[in-house]
Amino acid sequence: MTTNTSTNSTDVTATRLEFGKWAPKAFRALIALDAAAREGIDPALVELIQIRSSHLNHCAYCLHMHTNDARKAGESEDRLHMVAVWREARHFFTEREQAALALTDAMTLVADAGVPDDVYAQAAAQFDERELAHVLALTCTINTWNRVALSTGKVAGTDER
Questions:
Q1: Where are the alpha helices (DSSP H) in the chain?
Q2: Pick from 132, 156, 125: which is nearest to 45 by CA?
Q3: Please, what is the end-to-end C-alpha distance for the chain in angstroms?
Q4: Res 47 pLDDT > 50
Q5: What is the rounded CA–CA span in Å between residue 105 and residue 128?
Q6: In sequence order, which residues have a C-beta less than 8 Å from that of residue 121 and are 6 or more positions away?
Q7: Which of 14, 41, 112, 153 holds its CA 20 to 30 A away from the CA of 127?
Q8: For residue range 49-91, what is the model confidence (pLDDT) as tens digits?
Q9: What integer pLDDT is reported at residue 159 of this predicted model?
Q10: pLDDT per position as a tens digit, 102-141
Q11: How confident is the model at residue 19 (pLDDT cuts 50, 70, 90)?
């Protein structure tokens, strides 16, 4: 049962189901998958992938969280602003980052065109098999987090980690 204290979708006091409370095993499993997916991947790249998926999924909660995490990790404001338009601002990103962002786009929007062979090949050329598997897992994880945050009405700026 969901609890709605308000019908106004912009009201910060509106609440929905607390996913972690009612599906604690699933929540802990998602946290474990997230941690495992990050292993061996440059923390800056982790945040770029999470920011890009959050842009595409319109998840303000995750976008706010991951841009803040990226800043804390030393990411520049210029690059953070360019993630949304990375294809038009390629010079801000390395070839490796571009390959990861292209794969993130394809995986996040998988229903549109699948994961094209050229996008996969570009990523495979930039990452070894272990790294590529982790990029795939990380992209799956952030897409799941986005869907949980959007479905449960998480509000940007209320991260309680």
A1: 19-22, 24-38, 43-56, 60-72, 77-82, 95-108, 110-113, 117-126, 129-151
A2: 132
A3: 25
A4: yes
A5: 20
A6: none
A7: 112
A8: 999 999 999 999 999 999 999 999 999 999 999 999 999 999 9
A9: 83
A10: 999 999 999 999 999 999 999 999 999 999 999 999 999 9
A11: very high
The answer to whether 80 and 44 have CB atoms below 8 angstroms apart is no
Nearest 5°: the CA angle 131, 121, 114 is 100
Count of C-beta atoms within a 10 Å radius of residue 152: 16
d(CA 41, CA 19): 27
C-alpha to C-alpha distance for 98 and 160, rounded to whole angstroms: 31
Q: What residues contact 138, with CB distance under 8 A and at least 6 apart? A: 34, 37, 38, 41, 46, 49, 50
